[in-house]
Design brief:
The protein is of the alpha+beta class and 227 residues long. Helices cover 48% and strands 16% of the residues. The chain has a six-stranded antiparallel beta sheet. It is rod-shaped.
């Protein structure tokens, strides 16, 4: 598919490169790395190799990409970072540094420093730092069937306990029935004879006592008369 925007961008970048002799010279020297291209951006030019930006040209100065592994090499060589005016006039520092001037005149040294910058740019890409995991197809598990609830048991009403008075009356009635139902113990024959003898002796003693008294009274009267 032909995109007009890409065509316009390429046309403008080529036009600015042709009007900037330093950018043209830089592309010629860095051609030892491969097909290096330039793209106008932020008043300067970005340098690309295989779609990865590894260099920056601003005000006829070449800056190469650095990271935590390579920044010490540039610092030791006396390099300086690319800065620009950020928000509220504060200087903003980018991860692009200058390299020794003598490297510019040596194709072998320039190739070495260019490869270091390209490797740092590759490591700094988000895809290289943290590759996105491939999407895993989610297996939809069937929804668990709802368990049937057990039928609720009807609440049984507890019978009210009878009052204490009623309970006492029932106990008393039971005791009375128990007494009636108990058989009276039979007396033995010997016990019956003894009891009958006692009764006879009691009657005789009762009869004898008044007779003796009457006789005593009569005898007393006779003595008085004889006197």
């Amino acid at each position: 598919m032909f995109d007009k925007r890409d065509y316009v961008d390429q046309y403008l970048s080529v036009k600015t490169i042709m009007s900037n002799p330093f950018v043209e010279e830089t592309l010629e020297k860095l051609s030892i790395l491969g097909n290096v291209t330039a793209r106008a951006m932020f008043g300067g030019h970005g340098l690309y190799l295989d779609g990865v930006m590894f260099g920056l040209v601003a005000e006829d100065v070449l800056y190469l990409k650095v990271d935590d592994q390579t920044i010490s090499k540039f610092q030791a060589a006396g390099g300086r970072p690319f800065t620009y005016d950020g928000k509220e006039g504060a200087p903003a520092v980018m991860s692009y540094w200058t390299f020794p001037s003598e490297v510019w005149e040596s194709p072998e040294d320039l190739k070495e420093w260019g490869e270091i910058a390209y490797q740092a740019a590759v490591r700094s890409k988000p895809e290289a730092a943290a590759p996105k995991p491939e999407p895993v197809a989610k297996t939809v598990s069937p929804a668990p069937q709802a368990k049937k609830s057990a039928p609720k048991k009807k609440a049984t009403k507890k019978k009210a306990k009878p009052a204490k008075k009623k309970a006492k009356v029932k106990v008393a009635k039971k005791k009375a029935k128990a007494k009636k139902s108990k058989p009276t113990p039979k007396k033995s024959k010997k016990a019956v004879k003894k009891s009958s003898k006692k009764l006879v002796s009691k009657k005789k003693s009762i009869k004898k006592k008044p007779v003796k008294k009457a006789k005593a009274k009569k005898a007393a009267k006779k003595k008085k008369r004889s006197k």
